[in-house]
TrEMBL record:
SUPFAM superfamilies: alpha/beta-Hydrolases. This is Alpha/beta hydrolase family protein. It comes from Brachybacterium tyrofermentans. Residues 273-341 form the Serine aminopeptidase S33 domain. GO terms for molecular function: hydrolase activity.
Length: 475
């Protein structure tokens, strides 16, 4: 068989092409190296830019995606259960001073615990068992911490008559708890009845729509925090009730049981304030003439934003803020820095959240007005007296912006720092101090100084026996 040398094999052809492409001069070889280097650098830049964009997108979406179910998983081992005390693993949270509760089996077990009394072992702490809200006993197994302390609803936790009502917001009906004022109290009977004394009622707020039984016309609208629940308000509802203040504890868009927003994303208060505005409309339509806005964490930021944007600024007489999100850019940068995200990634993530083009990358329906959620902005627009609690050990919402807002507006903002407390756990750290500060502030604000001074705090006995229908669920 004769080989046809006129046909070139693929391998031979490729080698010939490579040889032909090789530069024959030193200058040519340097040029080729430069081209190869440029291609490599471009490839690395593309990969780095891609990684930067992916990281920034993850960082931007993390606070926007509702994740209520992930925050309450059992992760605290219970090591021993005695008749009068419980031993749990020693953690940052369990060794803090103050009060907390733990639950198991999704709330089938719920017990209330007092301050640390001893350290049975180097890795455990002992806390007194103050109350059990369920018949099923606590087991030696993992439990979930309930920082709300109380469980269930105002009715099952405190025996207060509670109505389930719906607030009509721009995205749909929002469930809320309505606890009417104590029948024996009349807020505003003391001196200084408030800015609405003697003022004509607005249409739709006539006496025919007021709560029966002669309750007062001051309402507190209670707003829970990011990924939290209405049960966050259970720690203060008894005090409000005893002062004769009606409380409306609301939900907002993307909450469990509430309608979703168009993009199913949190807007960090930029839009959620509209649901609080709807709650103000509901309160006024049912007889409210004075409104106190009370919010925890992101709920505090929502209360602030509502106070400067509401159409009823004259009806809002004051704010109570607990570890509020005063500056979202500060919060986002704080957490990104803790995760060691580089500055370009942090900046890109904030750009994605706040720009018309970038918001599409994180699937936001509209960009977030983070520039309107800063201490400087609120200091310029705030007109209402404000009591501001903040935990100095807060690793979720750093206290710096709260302190800054108070420094900018000392005429309006009373700053109450709590040493040794974690995020929204100021009440847990020292319920006597917390409720005394709250009662005195409301007494001055509402003309109830005598009633506030007469209150024994905490209003609800922390070791009170469980009510007949008490439950361990977080609602």
């Amino acid at each position: 068989m004769t080989r046809d040398h006129s046909r070139t094999s693929p391998l031979t052809g490729s080698l010939r092409w490579v040889r032909a492409a090789q530069p024959r001069s030193e200058q040519g070889r340097w040029a080729q190296a430069a081209v190869i280097g440029a291609i490599g650098a471009a490839s690395m830049f593309t990969l780095s830019a891609g990684a930067l964009a992916v990281g920034a997108r993850v960082m931007a979406r993390l606070p926007l995606v509702p994740q209520q179910g992930l925050r309450h998983r059992p992760d605290l081992p219970v090591r021993a259960v005695h008749e009068d005390r419980v031993h749990v693993d020693r953690t940052k949270e369990t060794e803090r001073e103050g009060y907390l509760a733990v639950r198991q089996s999704g709330g089938a077990v719920h017990v209330r615990l007092g301050p640390v009394t001893s350290h049975p072992t180097p890795t455990t702490v002992a806390r007194p068992l103050l109350g059990a809200d369920t018949s099923e006993p606590l087991q030696v197994a993992k439990a979930a911490v309930n920082g709300f302390y109380w469980a269930g609803s105002p009715r099952t936790a405190h025996g207060l008559e509670t109505e389930e009502v719906e607030v009509s917001s721009p995205v749909g009906p929002m469930p809320a708890w309505l606890v009417r004022a104590d029948h024996t109290k009349e807020p505003g009977q003391g001196p200084g009845h408030g800015p609405d004394q003697g003022r004509d009622q607005e249409p739709g707020a006539g006496s025919a729509q007021e709560a029966p039984g002669g309750q007062g016309d001051t309402w507190a609208i209670l707003i829970h925090g990011h990924g939290s629940m209405r049960g966050e308000a259970l720690r203060v509802i008894p005090l409000l009730h005893h002062l004769g203040v009606t409380s409306l504890t609301i939900t907002y868009r993307n909450d469990t049981g509430a309608p979703a927003s168009a993009d199913r994303m949190y807007h960090l208060g930029a839009d959620e304030w509209e649901d609080t505005e709807a709650a103000i409309d509901f309160a006024i339509a049912h007889g409210a003439r004075r409104i106190v806005l009370f919010g925890w964490s992101m709920g505090g930021g929502i209360a602030l934003r509502t106070s400067v944007r509401t159409a009823h600024r004259d009806r809002v007489v004051g704010l109570v803020l607990d570890s509020p999100a005063v500056d979202w850019q500060d919060i986002l940068i704080y957490h990104a820095t803790a995760l060691k995200a580089p500055k370009p990634m942090r900046n890109l993530g904030i750009w994605m959240m706040t720009s018309t083009v970038g918001r599409r990358l994180v699937r936001l329906h509209e960009p977030l007005a983070l520039h309107e959620m800063t201490p400087q902005y609120y200091a310029e627009h705030l007109i209402h007296p404000t009591l501001l609690f903040h935990a100095l050990d807060d690793a979720t919402v750093p206290p710096g912006p709260s302190r800054h807002l108070a420094a900018l507006r000392p005429d309006l903002v009373e700053f109450a720092p709590f040493e040794g407390a974690s995020h929204t756990r100021e009440w847990n750290r020292d319920p006597v101090r917390y409720e005394r500060l709250l009662a005195d502030y409301l007494g001055r604000l509402l003309g109830l100084e005598a009633e506030a001074a007469a209150l024994e705090v905490p209003v609800r006995d922390l070791a009170a026996p469980a009510l007949e229908d008490s439950i361990g669920l977080r609602l």
